[in-house]
Amino acid sequence: MAKIVITGGEVLNGEVQISGAKNAVLPILCATLLADAPISVGNVPHLHDVTTTMELLGALGAPLTVDEKLTITVDPTRTISTVAPYELVKTMRASILVLGPLLAKYGHAEVSLPGGCAIGSRPVDQHIRGLQALGAEVVVENGYVKARCDRLRGGRYSFEMVTVTGTENVLMAAVLARGTSVLENCAEEPEVVDLAHCLIAMGAKIEGAGTNRMVIEGVDRLSGGHYDVMPDRIETGTFLVAGAITGGRVLARRTRANILDGVLQKLEDAGAHINTGPDFIELDMGGRRPRAVNLTTAPYPGFPTDMQAQFAALNCVAEGVGVIKETIFENRFMHMNELMRLGADIHIDGHTAIIRGVETLTGAPIMATDLRASASLVLAGLVAKGETTVDRIYHIDRGYENIEEKLGGLGAKIRRVAA
Length: 419
Ligand code: EPU
What we know:
By secondary structure, the protein is α/β, with parallel strands linked by helices. The protein contains 14 helices and 24 strands. It has helices at residues 22-31, 48-59, 86-89, 99-106, 125-133, 164-174, 190-201, 233-245, 261-269, 308-316, 334-341, 371-383, 394-397, 403-409, and strands spanning 3-7, 13-17, 39-42, 64-66, 72-74, 83-84, 108-112, 137-141, 144-148, 156-158, 180-184, 205-207, 213-217, 225-228, 249-253, 273-277, 280-284, 295-296, 321-325, 345-349, 352-356, 365-367, 387-391, 413-417. The strands form six sheets. The protein has a four-stranded mixed beta sheet with strand order 22-23-1-24. It has a four-stranded mixed beta sheet with strand order 2-15-17-16. A hairpin with a 2-residue loop joins strand 20 (345-349) and strand 21 (352-356). Bound molecules: uridine-diphosphate-2(N-acetylglucosaminyl) butyric acid. The site of uridine-diphosphate-2(N-acetylglucosaminyl) butyric acid has 26 residues, from helix 1, helix 5, helix 6 and helix 12.
């Protein structure tokens, strides 16, 4: 199993190009199934989860091609299978996102339940209830969600909690339903908005994307075309924290500041100087040690749970005490114990972590447990004295394109080694 080895202590300085957003490209690739003509998707990040989604679309019978710029063209016009098998779904929970499109277009779908997940139990009851509100019959049998309908009809559904992929699944189903659907308590995440914009470009009629209430006027068919995926706000935030934690300067290009408001505010609270333009964010820490920040994760526009682990790493070496509360997932503190192995002073009380900044962390072998946890361990390794080896690095390849090359370009001493 590959590992990442970091020799800490370098102050990062330079520019980094931000890739397309993982959590936007996955639903958008699934949405291509809804079209009745070939559709191409650009600004696709080179990630393991993207490969898994391509395999899934291929298994469903939708031929796809990838060009040298990683633009993916999907041809969803052939008769395809409507069964998403466990072997593919178990490796990536986002596979559940083919449920809504397959059901809406073909009147039936069988998608394996994703199964356990390191960060929490993550049920899909809201996906199912939303589809039922559009007239689908849904049963859970033999580990599969089995859904059928003649044609979905417009309906009204209020999500019981804010769910990103739940909102996306029901939205993708509603665009081809007969009549008007009203979805309430929707997720407002920028990735949901990006999906809605892609669907609108395909001919869908959606109002209210980016608010908690969406009104969808069903259409009979969606066309193909081309859509470019938005920048990855979590990758952007991770590189900005890399600049802040090392006291350095990082200019993130091909990204947008307006999708990172809460994160930029916390970086300023930590003492960073932030300068933004239409497609860049520059963070300058001016050699200073960061100040500890308090944060509570919440659905957008609140502080993203996907940035919690990275700020935990920042707090570990900051001046003062930072309190972090995780409210979205019940088990998303697994990086804390690994950070303690580097010498961090962390006290955990339920879903709250109290982190007292220390002057120095010291390198050690540590283990990645999930995607964002692994990012936080790499960040801590950047400042830990000596060598830090992060094992189980496959987690990071699910969501970060060439992280060691990009950090290396900023001056980090980082390399990947085969096991
Ligand atoms: N939930 C339910 N029932 C449902 C759906 C969700 O109880 O039917 C609960 C979940 O268990 C969780 C909360 O609602 O406690 C929110 O979960 P949500 O459904 O919003 O999460 P998700 O859609 O499965 C997406 C991202 C995650 C990100 C979360 C929260 C994708 C592919 N994944 O997951 O990204 O953490 O939203 O913002 O969009 C990551 O990129 O590392 C990652 C985990």
